[in-house]
Design a protein that fits this description.
This protein has 152 residues and is mainly α. It has one domain: Glycoprotein, Type 4 Pilin (2-Layer Sandwich). Helices cover 42% and strands 6% of the residues. The protein has three helices and three strands, in the order αααβββ. A three-stranded antiparallel sheet has the order 1-2-3, with helices on one face. It is elongated.
Length: 152
C-alpha cells in the first residue's frame, strides 16, 4: 500500500524549523539562567581557593611542628630558608632523614606562603604563616590575607 503524496503545503509544514521568535525566547531563558548561576560559581571558586590555601597553611604548620619536635622544640628562625630546612633529606648531623616537605608550599594563587618566627603577629609562641590572599598583595596578614591566627 502506498502513502498518498503530500501536497506542497503539508510538506513545508512538516519540515518547518524553529522561528526566530522561538530561538530568541530560548536564548533569553538561557541568559537568565546564566545570570543566576555564574555569580554563584565564581563565589564558589573563591571560597574553594581560600579553603585550599588554609589547607596549605595547615600542612606547613604540621611540617614545622615535626621539625620542632626533632630539634629540641625550636622552630626555624624567620631569617633562615625555612623551606630548604623542611625539604632537606639530611639532619644537622648529616644523618639521612625523610624530608618534611616535598615542595615549597604555595597558596591557591601560586604565591609562596609567608613565614615569621618569632612572630610579631600573635603571642602563641608558634610561627606566623600567611598568604597574600586573592589580591596577591602582602598586607602582613591583614586585609584579605589568609593566616594561621585570628586577625584583630
Amino acid at each position: 500500500m502506498q502513502r498518498p503524496a503530500l501536497s506542497n503545503k503539508q510538506s513545508r509544514t512538516r519540515r518547518r524549523g524553529f522561528t526566530l521568535l522561538e530561538l530568541l525566547i530560548v536564548l533569553a531563558i538561557l541568559g537568565v539562567i546564566a545570570a543566576m548561576v555564574v555569580p554563584n560559581l565564581l563565589g564558589s571558586q573563591k571560597k574553594a581557593n581560600i579553603q585550599a590555601t588554609e589547607a596549605s597553611i595547615h600542612g606547613l604548620e604540621q611540617a614545622l611542628k615535626l621539625y620542632a619536635v626533632s630539634n629540641g622544640g625550636e622552630y626555624p628562625s624567620g631569617g633562615t630558608d625555612v623551606y630548604e630546612l623542611l625539604m632537606a633529606n639530611k639532619d644537622a648531623e648529616g644523618n639521612s632523614v625523610e624530608p618534611l616537605l616535598s615542595e615549597v608550599p604555595k597558596d591557591a594563587w601560586g604565591q609562596e606562603l609567608n613565614y615569621e618566627y618569632p612572630s610579631t603577629k600573635h603571642e602563641s609562641g608558634t610561627p606566623a604563616i600567611w598568604s597574600a590572599g586573592p589580591n596577591k598583595s602582602d598586607e602582613q596578614g591583614s586585609g584579605d590575607d589568609i593566616s594561621n591566627w585570628t586577625q584583630s
